[in-house]
């Protein structure tokens, strides 16, 4: 099971530099990804607002993240899907996943778990799951300090992710 863990962010990395370190073959992976209803990389955050913040770095062509160039060097030509509840109905996300092809999903554990349970999101093609581990909210809580986020994250891990880690298909990272 040790082989399923990626190096954790030692707090010297920006989001993009961390992703470049843990996924050096992203361009090739991205080009070969053809599975619908799936993402290659799943990023779990404690809130919709934090998800949007990270998506901004993933999608931005000209913004600069502290300590690195923009995310574009990592991202290349890939599609990102928002996987959280704020202002987005689950049916909309289900339709988007059904009709489109996405490389990175960024969202909250509760919504991701709901999409997996409804067979709208398939994790079999997922290669990387990143937990936004070190980020703290206004009350200085990390994602696992918030009881409902902790519960949803553990449920998702137990029901889906750990099995994929055991068979070697998913690698877990803590950012």
Automatic annotation (TrEMBL):
Tell me which GO cellular component terms the UniProt record holds: 90S preribosome; nucleus
Source organism's superkingdom? Eukaryota
Read off the Gene3D superfamilies from this record. P-loop containing nucleotide triphosphate hydrolases
Q: Which SUPFAM superfamilies match?
A: P-loop containing nucleoside triphosphate hydrolases
**Residues annotated as transmembrane:** none
According to UniProt, the name of this protein is Protein CMSS1
Organism lineage string: Eukaryota, Metazoa, Chordata, Craniata, Vertebrata
